[in-house]
Every structure is written in structure tokens, then in C-alpha cells.
Design a protein that fits this description.
70 residues, two-stranded antiparallel sheet, 14% helix, 2 helices
């Protein structure tokens, strides 16, 4: 199982992670961040395969993926 986190203050809402995520972990937030952008949220973390495509494609380094220990 993996933990996916999005730093909503860094995310510009480009949606690259949303499009490159095959398991469809991400969705677009309905609330803007302090800069007025609509960031993505990791809504379906249980679907994450740990491929880290989202982490690699994010131009703002707003996404992190970590294996949960336990």
C-alpha cells in the first residue's frame, strides 16, 4: 500500500498527474488554493500502484509517493 500526498500550495492544477495516473488516483479539487489554482487531490489512494509516474511528471514537485510500512 502506498501513501500519495499533494502539496496543494505548490500545485498549479496542470493535471499532468491526473492524466498520467493509470489507476486514476487523482481528481481535481473543487476548492482553490491560496494562489487561486484548483489543485489535484489524491482521492483514491487505495488504488495507487506505486509507479511514481505522478511524482516524476509533476513540474512543481507537489506530489510525493511513499510505501506505507506496517
Amino acid at each position: 500500500m502506498f501513501s500519495v500526498k499533494v502539496d496543494s500550495t505548490r500545485c498549479k492544477g496542470c493535471q499532468l498527474c491526473l492524466h498520467f495516473c493509470k489507476p486514476k488516483v487523482f481528481s481535481l479539487s473543487k476548492e482553490p488554493n491560496p494562489l487561486g489554482h484548483y489543485p489535484v487531490i489524491a482521492e483514491r489512494q487505495e488504488a495507487c500502484s506505486g509507479c511514481k509516474a505522478c511524482y516524476l511528471i509533476c513540474p512543481d514537485c507537489a506530489v510525493t509517493v511513499a510505501r506505507e510500512v506496517g
